[in-house]
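Before relying on records like the one below, remember that each one covers exactly one chain. Contacts with other chains, cofactors or solvent are not represented anywhere in the record.
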Amino acid sequence: MMNPVETNHLHLILTAQCPKLSPTAEGLLSYNIWQETDSDVLYIALAANEGGGYFSHELIPVLHLMDCLATLQASKQAFPAVRLRTAFEGKSANNASFLAAVLRHQEVLLPCPENTKLHTVSIKMTTWPERLLLLDTRSQTPTNTDVDSHPQPNATPPIKAAKGKQKTAPNTLPESLLPSAVTTDIADLHDDENSLEMVDENHS
């Protein structure tokens, strides 16, 4: 395993597995992609081999690897995996082929149509670092400020409690139509009728 001291200044953005180049090879390869915590500098490293076989545990700067790939791309010829050994400081015989398998998994290398044991550089190679940086989820977590500053268009506004005593709605009916007034007018009419009857009796 890689010495933890080598990565204590790095942020792990991807751990993945991929098949080996040979269809008869057993087990999967594991690899990691790291980013410096205070910059966009990226590293790739082989991490494990399920089927056995030694390899170098070392961080390979992605920009250094890009330079190697650019040189191979400029030749406009398919190439064997051994051409990638310059990316390593270690001398393990499996380094180059394992790295080629990882780069195929990342769609940076493609198999040559005429000979699948050879490789060509994909046109996606130039955007590979940018795609790797998108894997960093540290800058994708929304903050409370972001959420509060973008309210939903159909969100129901909060209901505020009324302050003080509630006022009774004013009565809009004319005073003459209020029930007490109507009752008083009817009583007055009865008194007037009785008065008229008494007058008539007196005259009669």
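The first helix runs from residue 62 to 74.
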